[in-house]
Amino acid sequence: MDYKKMGMALGVFSVGLGLFELIGARRAARTLGVEGGASEGVIRIFGARELVAGAMLLRGPAVSTNVWNRVIGDVADLGTLLVAAPRTSRPRAVAGALAFVAGATALDVLVARGLDQQSGRTWPAGEASPA
After folding, report:
1. The pTM of the whole model exceeds 0.70
2. Measuring CA to CA, which residue among 72, 75, 53 is closest to residue 8?
3. How much is the pLDDT for 114?
4. Per the count of CB atoms within 10 A, which of 16, 60, 70, 109 is most buried?
5. What is the DSSP letter of 128?
6. Contact indicator for 46, 21 with CB cutoff of 8 Å
């Protein structure tokens, strides 16, 4: 498997998803049955995070740290959806979103681990790991 190409594809996906979340936050909230309150703002913040993750992957698709950053975002998405689940007027939509994000998380972990194994390191060459 070409993990670098997968990293690039994840970067493109992240940019697209981030744009949707920024531009279509109201529609996403309505689709998930969580309109009102802070939902749209949270969706926009997650969209900005996706754009940054996508930009980092497009800049360095073979750097596993960039994919691990997506995994961290996926965990935040899953947690937020789990919090929304009992409050939504559309539980099937939230369940579908949970399934989608769980699948994306599995793919992100697969690619991140593959890049770790290919390079033998999580951090890019020339960069020290955080202390």
Report:
1. yes
2. 53
3. 95
4. 70
5. P
6. yes
